[in-house]
Amino acid sequence: MTRRLFLQLSAASAASAMLGGCTSFITQAVDNPPALYRLTPKSTFGDGIYPVTWQLVVDQPYAEAAINSQRIALMYTPIQVDYYANANWTDRAPDMIQGLIVESFENSNMISSVGRQSAGLRSDFVLLPEVREFQAEYFESEPPIAHVRVNVKLIKMPDRAIVDNASFEAEIQAAANNMDAIVNAFDEALGKVLKGLVRWTLVTGNLYV
């Protein structure tokens, strides 16, 4: 066998092995898709809020790359981010949170019109959220703590002036160290954040109309 023919056969064998490995990996991914989880909007807000006549648009939330993902983030130390295997959110976390903010405002029945910024709607105010914390933390306890923090700025249109800002944070420990319990803890923590965010926005907006 010539050296040239040997090299050709070796390259073909290597390509075949690589293709076989890829096929195995793809089959495994199809056979074992990640479980998908979603969170729920807030629907009760208590007393002390009143109907408003102005319109609101919720902007696309900012989040750092570690959170800006469908993957569910976890932290074993305060400086290292990891992700749960075989478990994802149904959407990228910022998109999911934006939708839940809009739904929570709608559920309040206190605002005449609310929608996403991407819809190109005209509004009296824009709410600009920033997702600062959205992970399960193991460095203080196990089962982990679902830690959610969202900062918001309320912007008056059309001059786009920031009239106020606030931060909403909640930490809920999961009842057990399994995905259903951890996602339930996320749901409760985000629910507390959404409740505070909606109430603050409705009250604050009325001060600047």
Give the topology, please:
Blueprint: H1 3-31, E1 35-37, E2 52-58, E3 62-63, E4 71-77, E5 80-89, H2 93-108, E6 111-116, E7 125-137, E8 145-156, E9 161-173, H3 179-205
Parallel strand pairs: 1-5, 2-6, 2-7, 3-7, 4-7
Antiparallel strand pairs: 4-5, 7-8, 8-9
Helix pairs in contact: 2-3
List the main descriptive attributes of the protein structure presented here.
209 residues; Rossmann fold; 2 domains; 9-stranded mixed beta sheet; 3 helices; disordered N terminus
CATH 2nd-level architecture of the largest domain: 3-Layer(aba) Sandwich
CATH homologous superfamily identity of the largest domain = ABC-type transport auxiliary lipoprotein component
State the share of residues found in helices, binned by percent.
Answer: 25-40%
The major β-sheet equals: 9 strands, mixed
CATH class type of the largest domain: Alpha Beta
Number of domains: 2
How many beta-strand runs? 9
Query: Kindly state the mean pLDDT as a whole number?
Result: 88
Taking the alpha carbons of the first and last residues, their distance comes to: 86 Å
Shape estimate:
elongated
Order of helices and strands: HEEEEEHEEEEH
Number of helices: 3
Unreliable residue runs:
1-29
Q: Approximately what portion of the residues adopt beta-strand conformation?
A: 25-35%
Question: According to CATH, what is the topology of the largest domain?
Answer: Rossmann fold
Backbone structural class? alpha/beta
Evaluate the radius of gyration: 23 Å
